[in-house]
Amino acid sequence: MKLADLPAALKLLEKESRLRHPDDFLDRDRLQDEFGEDFVDAATNDYLGLGERRCSFTIGPVQEWAVDVSRETSPQVETSPQVGLKSTERSPESPQVGLKTAGHGDTTSRDFVEGGLGVPSPPRPNAHVSLNVSRETRDRPGLNAFSSESRRFQESNLSPPTQEKASCELAQPLPGGPSVREDVSRETVQTVLRAGASASRLIYGSSRTHLDVEAYLAEWLGHEGSLLFSSGYAANVGALAALLSPGDAVFSDAFNHASLIDGIRLSKARPRVVSHLNCDELEKGLKSSRSSSARWVVTESYFSMDGDGPDLPRLRELCDHYDASLYVDEAHSIGTFGPLGAGLCVEKGIRPDVLMAAFGKAVGSHGACIAGSLNLRTWLWNRARSFVFSTAPSPLQTDALLSQLHAVSAAEGARKRLDEVGQKVRAGLRRKGVEVEPSSFGPILSLVLGSEEKALKVAANLRRSGILAQAIRPPTVPDSASRLRLCLRASLNDQQIERLILSVARETKGLTSQ
Ligand SMILES: Cc1ncc(COP(=O)(O)O)c(C=O)c1O
Question: Rounded CA gap, 28 and 219, in Å?
């Protein structure tokens, strides 16, 4: 379909009473607030109530910390928690986090308090850190009371009270059960988070943290809106199948990831595979497909097996000229490139019509989003089957994702170092006579060796020198294009870089086939 037809398609759904509006007003929370103890939740698959085992606070300003609290309780014996501070780089004005627990359980229980990275970044002026408290007590009257309290903080627009000491009675002791009381010094208590989302968001509804992360992503990536998916695979498959129609002309780069290929297949549109990065061939195809109902160009911005990328401004120009929509998968470039790590599209100053960002790579988390217009978001809410028929990302994990996104935006130093490492390794290998593809850049460096045997042998020899690099073989890459894939990291020091260069040059001597 043409993206310009989305408003009409949504109107049609509405006329047929089949349009589902995204749950952006948090219906469940509002009901819970209105009815309090009388609220009856009959719209969740969390049959045992276990999804509420964990809760989280958002506090600030803290720079970086992590606290791990574990305690073991034996029958009717009260024990003190052991507190291990993993990292305590606090700013002097940061609040202190204190946690008191008292156990009266008849089982072993464990409490965790985890800190995230609370780094300010332009889209979100306030520093944030997430404190996730898992506990054995749940589903008790106290929890509802706590939810209401946290919502009150939200409604007061999180205007941070100064470092007051908050004491939250989370649960009433049950006969024979554990009781937990937590004292947290903090500026704001933002929300209660569930360990599990319990169902698809069309069934259970959204959580505040889903909406917060989506708003953050939209701003960061420069789009009107975004929608979270549980993985990059789910995002690509769901979005492409929802957007492409059988009569569309779909131009897909020959090296596109399997999730893009599968999404196109599911849509039943016939893909026209374009040679890798070949804009001239793409232009010919676009010219000759004027009669198609819609045209799409589908590509990655940074190819995961080759460490290269298309000429994004040229792709944008071609799409504008031939009235095609541009779909860009930024799985490997988000966090890695661009100002604040916002990816190659932002770096090159172009806006694709649909952008997929995955968080399992440089963001160091999990999940993905599709960013684009608000109409696109609503369409996917209704039509992306991997979104509609799949349990939403866990609110707790999504909160951790937000911390990671703040951290990735702030990691300008690490990005600069990563770029330096990439240049040093490429230059070093070339000096040793290794053929490195001139178009490759960034952290992925593939040395094409040809046969599977060669790639496996080189990888095995490198392991013996303490270097772990994967041999990539068909079906991930075409036949006879097996390779050694180096994933470079900002943390490599100069000695490690030197050792890597020497070992790779020694093991691949005379084998690279580019
Ligand atoms: C280019 C590309 N797109 C999508 C994905 C899928 O992302 P996820 O691992 O989050 O499912 C990957 C994963 O390797 C990828 O490399």
Answer: 26
Question: In CATH, what number is assigned to the domain containing residue 214?
Answer: 3.40.640.10
Q: The domain spanning residue 431 has which CATH number?
A: 3.90.1150.10
> What's the pLDDT tens digit per position in 395-446?
989 999 999 999 999 999 999 999 999 999 999 999 999 999 999 999 999 9
pTM for the predicted model, two decimal places: 0.77
Please tell me whether residues 260 and 394 are part of one structural domain. Answer: yes
Q: Is the CB of 259 under 6 A from ligand 1?
A: yes
Q: How many CB atoms lie within 10 A of CB 164?
A: 12
Question: What is the Å distance from ligand 1's center to 41 Cα?
Answer: 36
DSSP one-letter code for 187: S
For ligand 1, whether the C-beta of 449 sits within 6 Å is no
Assess whether 282 and 294 both reside in one domain. Answer: yes
301 lines ligand 1 (CB under 6 A): no
* 50 band by pLDDT with thresholds 50, 70 and 90: confident
Distance (Å, whole) CA 56 – CA 197:
14
Domain boundary among 364, 386, 410: 410
